[in-house]
Amino acid sequence: MDGRFFMQYLKDSPEARERLSYVFERMCAEGTLERTFYDGTVRTRDEFLADVSQIGSLPFLVFWEGRPAGFTWYNTLEGRSARGHYVFFKAVWGRKTSAVIGRRIYEHFLTLRDDRGYLFDLILGLTPKRNAVAWKLPLLCGAFVIGEIPHGAYMADKGRTEDAVLVGVTRESLGLKDR
User: Fold this and answer.
1) Which of 4, 25, 96, 179 lies at 20 to 30 Å from 160 by C-alpha?
2) CA–CA separation, 139 vs 157, rounded Å?
3) How far apart are CA 173 and CA 107, in angstroms?
């Protein structure tokens, strides 16, 4: 890893809620809230805090070159897999920087260990097919397409479901050797 990147786990606390409020405000200001929560479940700060802070959710603030660069969180934990979500702030948009940061996020999460070994073997991402930037960026970071899921994404702005793309990432797809 390089020193330009780090992630801060936001364990529920007053400080974490303050940082999460910052993330919410930044997403609103940069126009990414509705694209990220396309299903309409999050519209307000309270809904955002409740969603990303619920039991079973693992929220992280992402830093690049000492500044907040984005936010990632994991939920729907099952076995050694999790659903991954992310949003990058505009300051780091661009294929070159976003792909490096995205790969570091994957490497960080997939190399977390305890005394029994790796905590996770697979990160899954489900994205509306129409949002090609959101599902193609993970491919630049080491993910692979698992397939399309008919009617897999509810689109609140349209009031109906649309096809979604399911991607996955593993240590193997990242080319990481067993550590």
Assistant:
1) 25
2) 26
3) 11
**How many residues are recorded in the chain?**
179
Does residue 80 contact residue 119 with C-beta atoms inside 8 Å?
yes
In the predicted structure, residue 2 carries a pLDDT above the cut 80: no
- In the structure encoding, which two tokens stand for residue 15, read together? 């400080």
Report pTM: 0.93
Q: What does pLDDT average to over the chain?
A: 95
Instruction: Please report how the helices 132-140 and 95-110 are oriented relative to each other, as an axis angle in degrees rounded to 10.
Output: 70
Kindly tell me the sign of the dihedral angle through the C-alpha atoms of 106, 21, 153, 93. negative
Q: Give, in order, the Cα–Cα distances in Å from 177 to each of 107, 111, 140, 171.
A: 11, 10, 19, 8
Question: What is the Cα–Cα distance from 119 to 110, expressed in whole angstroms?
Answer: 7
Q: pLDDT of 105-128, one tens digit each?
A: 999 999 999 999 999 999 999 999
User: Which DSSP symbol is given to 147?
Assistant: E
Give the count of alpha carbons within 13 A of 12, CB side only: 9
Helices (H) and strands (E) in the chain, counts: 6, 9
Tell me which residue has tokens 């349209």.
Answer: 158
